[in-house]
Design brief:
Blueprint (H helix, E strand, L loop, with lengths): L1 H15 L15 E7 L5 E5 L5 H8 L21 E4 L4 H5 L1 E2 L5 H4 L7 H14 L16 H7 L3 E2 L1
Parallel strand pairs: 1-3, 4-5
Antiparallel strand pairs: 1-2
Length: 157
């Protein structure tokens, strides 16, 4: 009998609590901040809705005529604090492999990179967002200073 009485008292207390102050926030409701630099008309940091793409950021940054967009996948979903650097189009930038957009097949072309390391680079990119510097490649398990030195002239962001 006591248990039933305690249970009823508990129910009454629950309904007395004002729940209007509590709201649920989903990931879609939280905006992200991303930066764009390089060959764009409007460089800077922008606040975008969650799950925005590179294409959405390019619409705000407005690439210049001399911008090299050949290595970008415009459908890539951005993460909070991503930084996109648009290089100037020239023969040198076209020879480099983009750490932020390269496929496994492209990464395997780098000196010292096999299929498993290429997959680790892509996994790292998916978990942590775009690489902010080319040196950040050394944070990927299996890539140390020696491998970095061999590939640094062949990679870009």
């Amino acid at each position: 009998m006591r248990i039933l009485l305690i249970f009823l008292l508990f129910l009454v207390l629950i309904f007395q609590i004002d729940q209007s102050d509590y709201t649920l926030v989903t990931k879609e409701d939280v905006p992200i901040k991303v930066s764009i630099e390089g060959e764009v008309e409007n460089p800077g940091t922008y606040e975008l809705p969650a799950y925005s793409s590179v294409e959405d950021l390019l619409e705000l940054g407005i690439p210049k005529e001399e911008a090299d967009l050949s290595t970008l996948n415009e459908q890539t979903i951005l993460k909070d604090k991503d930084k996109l650097i648009i290089p100037k189009a020239n023969t040198e930038s076209r020879k480099r492999i983009s750490l932020n957009n390269a496929t496994i097949e492209e990464l395997i072309l780098l000196p010292g990179i096999g299929e498993s390391t290429a997959q680790k680079i892509i996994d790292y990119r998916n978990e942590n967002g775009y690489f902010q510097t080319i040196e950040e490649i050394m944070d990927v398990k299996g890539i140390g200073k020696a491998k970095y030195e061999k590939m640094k002239d062949y990679i870009s962001l």
